[in-house]
Write a structure and sequence with these properties.
The chain is of the alpha/beta class. The protein has 6 helices and 11 strands. About 25% of the residues lie in helices and about 30% in strands. The strands form 2 sheets. It has a 6-stranded mixed beta sheet. The N terminus and C terminus are likely disordered.
């Protein structure tokens, strides 16, 4: 068994992002890049009568025209191409994307040569923004969405997208999150913690079914690693000893401001070498 596999079976990586982030992941003796990005109000120009997206139309507050949208899509693509010498990340997780046709348009018009498969499941957010994923890896199974409702919060939030990818016949589950804003106060904090608990339960279910699976939890969590959603919901830990305890499910938070992930993984591979 590979040096890193013991670590990967027992460890789930939760990645905290503020703006955008890319990092190298090692699995099954393959090095690849995962990047997360909040693309901030990536709407098409059409008014959806079932969503509160009127601001992003030609007549709306943002005066959102096809010309402006095309410029934004090209600028986003330019940033993606700064990763891996123009090849882009192997997996790109996104938040604040309106719908799948828009994501498909971006892939076809501006990223066609990079070989991405776009994935988005429409969620209940009242503005119509969703989480999404672009991948160069084939799917292992059908993507699903995880929904957590909280009437006290007053409005539905984004679903968590769960995408099973195939890495050399070993499943990698990427879970894309966009938790409620801090503007919601205490109720939003409780909502974030409830979602975190459901995400952990989903991870436990995945690993119970297949102990060989690897999991990455990514997204815009609207919380810090020391907040209750991480410590009590996801039950993350900074205790390195738990990473090598086969009886425990360890979720290790990676904050891009604090951790050099490639160096950390190199260190862990030395510790797990057999």
């Amino acid at each position: 068994m590979g040096n890193c596999k013991t670590l990967c079976i027992k460890t789930v990586v939760a990645v905290l992002f503020i703006l955008s982030f890319s990092t190298l992941i090692h699995a099954e003796n393959r090095l690849f890049t995962v990047m997360h990005w909040n693309v901030e109000n990536l709407f098409d120009t059409v008014d959806d009568p079932e969503k509160d997206d009127g601001e992003f139309t030609p007549d709306g507050k943002a005066q959102w025209t096809e010309e402006k949208l095309a410029i934004k899509l090209k600028n986003l693509a330019r940033v993606v191409r700064t990763v891996n010498n123009g090849d882009g990340p192997a997996v790109l997780t996104l938040v604040e994307v309106e719908n799948l046709p828009l994501l498909e348009r971006w892939c076809q018009d501006d990223l066609a040569d990079l070989g991405y498969t776009p994935i988005l499941i429409q969620g209940p957010d009242v503005r119509g923004i969703n989480v999404a994923l672009l991948t160069k890896f084939p799917l292992m199974d059908k993507p699903i969405s995880l929904r957590v409702s909280d009437q006290r919060y007053g409005r539905p939030t984004r679903d968590t997208l769960i995408v099973p990818l195939n890495l050399n016949n070993v499943p990698l589950f990427v879970m894309v999150n966009h938790w409620p804003s801090r503007l919601g106060g205490d109720h939003a904090a409780e909502y974030r913690q409830a979602i975190a608990s459901k995400v952990r339960q989903a991870v436990q279910k995945i690993l119970k079914k297949d102990a060989e699976a690897d999991v990455i939890i990514a997204g815009d969590f609207n919380d810090e690693t020391e907040d209750a959603s991480f410590l009590e919901g996801l039950k993350t830990t900074w205790d390195w000893n738990t990473l090598f305890d086969p009886s425990q499910l360890s979720l290790f938070p990676i904050d891009y401001e604090l951790v050099n992930l490639p160096l950390m993984m190199k260190s862990l591979r030395r510790k797990t070498r057999v």
